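Researcher: I'd like a structural prediction for the single chain below. Treat it as a standalone chain; there are no partners to consider.
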Amino acid sequence: MVDNNFQGPERYIGLLSKTLILFGFFLLGGFIGQFIGLLSVVLIVGFPTQDVNQFQKSVLDFMAHPQNYEGAFRAMMALQWFSALFTFVASSWAYLRWSEKRDLNSLSSNSSPDYRVFLWSIITILVGMPLLEYIIQWNESLVLPAGFEETEKWMRASETQLAELTKFLIDFHSPMDFAIGLAVIAGLAALGEELFFRGVLQSLFERYTGNHHVAIWVSAGIFSFIHFQFFGFFPRLFLGAFFGYLYVWNRNIWIPIVAHLFNNGWTLTMQYMYQQKQIAVDPEKLGEITPWWSVVISLALVVFYIRRLYTYRLEK
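Model: Treating it as a single chain, here is the predicted structure.
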């Protein structure tokens, strides 16, 4: 709904002001998280600190080639943990506390959501995987118009670099590595990103524009863009929009958090099972072997369950 304190141009000035404050906390949280995370990396890997120049070179080389260092997996997980904790969770809390004079509990209604909403949300993600794989393949095949060759080259190089880091982070050598990956990549990422993008940012846009569709899709676009994986933009955009509608329809932040956690956790679990040779198909190759008819069925089932989630709100 619209904040009645702002009408006309004043409404958008208020939106701009609040958004700048939010992203100020976001940048501050990111800086603090990166700083503490890098301290953790230094302690875990054991970089010598006597020579400042050599220390700087070692840290930069570690960030570019973590696979060359002993203890690098847990060091990178520590960096990811503190980055997510401060960038998303702490910044959301700080913004609500100092700018809106409320706390994180205000992001959810007092009533507990029905278990069926969680179940249908998870089923929607499961049945939507063939459709999502098709969108991933389509997005990866996009070519920019003539004249943007250098931009596309930079985007693909950035994509390759991030893909290599992701591959390193999900290369689990033990059950403990897998558990750490679930806690950081599935658990904290889902919690932090949903608090920030759905609980705070989306609610902010909705309150000032009065249009939850605009709020959902703008927030989902920012959510996808900020990952800087341009050839994975649309799959993440649609996932972000789905999480956004879950929040709007239920007004409980734990529903998109659980759905997001399941999505990330399922991906990690399939990857770990493949590494342990418990499944034969590489999860990263699923899009190449997904038949067209399964995509059609997937789309139909996604529509069915999204409609069920929507109509349930009307039945309450």
